[in-house]
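sry for the spam today, last one i promise. C-alpha cells for design, 606 residues
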C-alpha cells in the first residue's frame, strides 16, 4: 500500500520479523492438514455413514463429496440475548447452502457464558478461562474432518476469541463469522450509570436498579454499549472475517437474513475446489492482526482485547505484545466515541456511518493495510462500504456517505476526538499494565496518592460503605490475575470509585485483574504483569505506599522500598460453581500480555 503510515509499516514489519519461525511452522502445519484433510473422500465408508446418518435431505450430496459441506459451529443459547437469535440460523443456513450446491451441518456447539450475568459472582472466575474451553470445543466440532468450510456463530466476550483460536487450528479451511446484531436501544447508558452510582451510595432501591437494568438490557441481540462483544464484531470486520458491514445490522431483519445467506454462499465458493480458495490461515496474517489492532484503537474498543489479540495472533503463529499496541496507539487517532467513551450506543454508531465510515477513513489515511485477503473480494476496500437491499430485495453494497451522520460520534482522521488511540502501556517498578485513556478525562491521566490494598472487590465495597476511601486514594486489588483466580472482571468497583471521583477526590485503580470494554471514567492500570501470584510487585505493596499512575509518561510506580518486605499470601482458593474443574488452566496460564491461555504455550512450537 503506497500511502501506508510509517508507524503501521514499522510495527507490521517488526511483528513479521519476530514471528517468522512460528508463523512458518503454523503455515507448514496448515499445508499438511490441507493435504491430509482437504477432502472428506479420504474417510472410510463407515466414517461417512456415521457423519451423514441423520442428514436426511443431504445424504446423497454429502456422500458424493462434490459440493462443499459447511460446518456450523454455534454458541447458541437463549439465556444470552446476543445469541438467542442463533436458534433458528442452522435450518435457514442449510437451505442457503443447497442453493449453491452445498450442504451444511451443525458440527458442534460451544459454551457461551454471559459476563453481565456473572459480574461480581463466583461464576465470573470462569469467564476468561471459558475462552480456552470454547477453542477446544471448536476443535472437537471440527475434528470429524467432514467439512470444507466453517460458519462460526458467536458474538460475545470470550466466545469470538475462543472460536478464532479454535478455528485457526483448522486454518486450511475457509471461515466466516456470522453475527446476529445488536438489540434496539433502550434506556440511555448515562441514565443507567447514574442509577448504579445512586444505588452504590444507598440512594436508590434494588427495585429501582432492576427496573433501570431491565430497561437497558431488554430484547434479543447484543448489548448496545461498546464493550468486548461489540469490539469483537468490529475486529472481525477489520480482520476480513465478516461479510462487509455485517457487524451491527439488527437481528431478525431482511438485511440481516440476506447477509447470513451471502456468508453461506461465500463459504460454498471459497472452500478447496470451490474456485476461489480463501483459507483462514491466509486471511488471518500479520497485516490482518495489525488491522484489528488499529480498528480497536481508532474506535476506543475494549481493553479485554489487550489480552485476546495476543492470544488470537499466537494461534496463527504471530507474536504480538503490548509494546506493539502502544506504538500503534501513538499513531492511530480516536475517530469514534461510543458509550462508555461517548453518549450514543452502537445503534447510533451504525446509523451515523458505522464500520464503513471507520474503514474508509483508516484506509484513506494509510492506517490499515488494504492489500489483504478477506472472505470476500476487494480486500479491505470492500469493508469501506455499507450493505443494503436494492429495490428488488437483493443484497448490494454502496459507498458510505462522505460525512458522518453524527459528529459527536464519528469524526474524520483529519479532525479526531483525540490524536491517539487511547490505549497506553504504563510500566515501572509495579509491572506493566494497560491504561485506557480514551474513556478518562485528560485531567485525570496522572494520579499520585497513597494506596489502599485489597485482595477482593467485595472488600473494596465494604471499605467504601464504611467511609474509609473518602479521600485521594489509589485502590489496589491484587491476586486477580489468570493464575490466581482466572482473572475476573471487577465491575463491582466502577460505581463506588466513580462516586469518590465525583466527590472531587483523586482516585485510581491498579489491579492484575480486568475491567473490560465497559470500563468507565476512573483512571485504571489493569492487567498488571507479572501478576501478584507470580512474583509481581503488587504482592509487596502495603497500605499508605505512594503510587503514581501516569498515562502521559507511561508510569506505574511506587516510591516504597521493597527490599525488606515479604510478599503477601494470596487468599485461599474456594471450590464451588465448578471453579475447581479449571484449576489446571489457572495453574498453567501465562501472563495477560501473552494472552493468558495455558493451551497456547506450546502451540506452533512456542
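last one done:
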Amino acid at each position: 500500500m503506497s500511502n501506508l503510515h510509517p508507524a503501521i509499516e514499522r510495527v507490521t514489519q517488526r511483528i513479521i520479523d519476530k514471528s517468522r519461525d512460528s508463523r512458518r511452522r503454523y503455515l507448514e502445519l496448515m499445508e499438511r492438514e490441507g493435504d491430509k484433510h482437504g477432502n472428506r473422500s479420504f474417510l472410510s465408508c463407515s466414517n461417512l455413514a456415521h457423519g451423514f446418518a441423520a442428514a436426511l435431505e443431504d445424504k446423497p450430496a454429502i456422500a458424493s463429496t462434490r459440493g462443499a459441506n459447511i460446518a456450523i459451529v454455534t454458541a447458541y443459547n437463549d439465556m444470552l440475548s446476543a445469541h438467542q437469535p442463533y436458534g433458528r440460523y442452522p435450518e435457514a443456513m442449510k437451505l442457503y447452502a443447497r442453493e449453491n450446491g452445498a450442504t451444511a451441518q451443525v458440527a458442534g456447539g460451544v459454551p457461551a457464558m454471559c459476563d453481565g450475568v456473572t459480574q461480581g459472582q463466583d461464576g465470573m472466575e470462569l469467564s476468561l478461562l471459558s475462552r480456552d474451553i470454547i477453542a477446544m470445543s471448536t476443535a472437537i466440532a471440527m475434528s470429524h474432518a467432514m467439512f470444507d468450510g466453517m460458519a462460526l456463530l458467536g458474538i460475545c466476550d470470550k466466545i469470538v476469541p475462543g472460536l478464532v483460536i479454535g478455528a485457526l487450528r483448522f486454518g486450511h479451511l475457509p471461515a466466516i463469522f456470522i453475527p446476529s446484531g445488536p438489540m434496539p436501544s433502550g434506556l440511555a447508558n448515562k441514565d443507567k450509570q447514574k442509577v448504579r452510582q445512586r444505588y452504590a451510595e444507598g440512594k436508590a432501591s434494588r427495585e429501582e436498579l432492576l427496573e433501570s437494568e431491565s430497561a437497558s438490557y431488554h430484547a434479543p441481540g447484543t448489548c448496545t454499549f461498546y464493550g468486548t462483544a461489540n469490539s469483537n464484531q468490529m475486529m472481525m470486520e477489520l480482520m476480513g472475517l465478516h461479510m462487509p458491514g455485517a457487524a451491527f445490522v439488527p437481528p431478525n431483519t431482511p438485511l440481516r437474513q440476506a447477509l447470513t445467506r451471502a456468508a453461506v454462499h461465500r463459504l460454498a465458493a471459497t472452500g478447496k475446489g470451490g474456485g476461489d480458495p480463501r483459507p483462514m490461515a491466509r486471511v488471518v496474517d500479520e497485516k490482518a492482526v495489525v488491522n484489528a489492532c488499529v480498528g480497536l484503537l481508532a474506535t476506543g474498543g475494549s481493553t479485554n482485547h489487550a489480552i485476546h489479540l495476543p492470544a488470537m495472533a499466537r494461534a496463527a503463529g504471530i507474536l504480538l505484545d503490548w509494546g506493539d499496541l502502544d506504538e500503534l496507539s501513538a499513531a492511530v487517532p480516536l475517530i469514534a466515541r461510543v458509550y462508555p467513551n461517548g453518549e450514543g450506543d452502537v445503534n447510533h454508531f451504525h446509523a451515523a456511518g458505522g464500520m464503513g465510515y471507520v474503514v474508509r477513513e483508516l484506509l484513506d489515511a494509510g492506517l490499515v493495510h488494504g492489500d489483504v485477503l478477506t472472505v470476500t473480494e476487494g480486500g479491505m476496500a470492500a469493508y469501506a462500504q455499507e450493505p443494503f437491499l436494492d429495490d428488488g430485495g437483493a443484497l448490494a453494497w454502496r459507498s458510505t456517505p462522505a460525512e458522518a451522520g453524527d459528529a459527536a460520534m464519528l469524526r474524520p482522521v483529519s479532525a479526531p476526538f483525540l490524536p491517539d488511540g487511547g490505549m497506553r502501556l504504563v510500566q515501572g517498578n509495579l509491572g506493566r499494565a494497560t491504561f485506557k485513556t480514551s474513556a478518562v478525562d485528560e485531567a485525570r491521566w496522572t494520579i499520585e496518592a497513597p494506596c489502599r490494598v485489597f485482595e477482593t472487590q467485595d472488600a473494596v465495597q465494604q471499605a467504601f460503605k464504611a467511609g474509609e476511601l473518602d479521600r485521594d486514594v489509589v485502590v489496589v486489588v491484587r491476586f486477580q490475575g489468570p493464575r490466581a483466580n482466572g482473572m475476573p472482571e471487577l465491575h463491582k468497583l466502577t460505581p463506588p470509585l466513580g462516586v469518590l471521583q465525583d466527590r472531587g477526590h483523586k482516585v485510581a485503580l491498579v489491579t492484575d485483574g480486568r475491567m473490560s470494554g465497559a470500563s468507565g471514567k476512573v483512571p485504571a492500570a489493569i492487567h498488571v504483569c507479572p501478576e501478584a501470584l507470580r512474583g509481581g510487585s503488587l504482592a509487596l505493596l502495603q497500605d499508605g505506599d505512594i503510587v503514581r499512575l501516569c498515562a502521559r509518561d507511561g508510569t506505574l510506580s511506587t516510591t516504597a522500598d521493597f527490599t525488606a518486605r515479604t510478599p503477601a499470601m494470596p487468599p485461599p482458593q474456594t471450590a464451588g460453581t465448578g471453579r475447581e474443574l479449571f484449576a489446571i488452566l489457572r495453574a498453567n496460564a501465562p501472563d495477560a500480555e501473552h494472552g493468558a491461555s495455558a493451551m497456547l504455550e506450546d502451540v506452533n512450537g512456542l
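The mean pLDDT is 93. ok im logging off now
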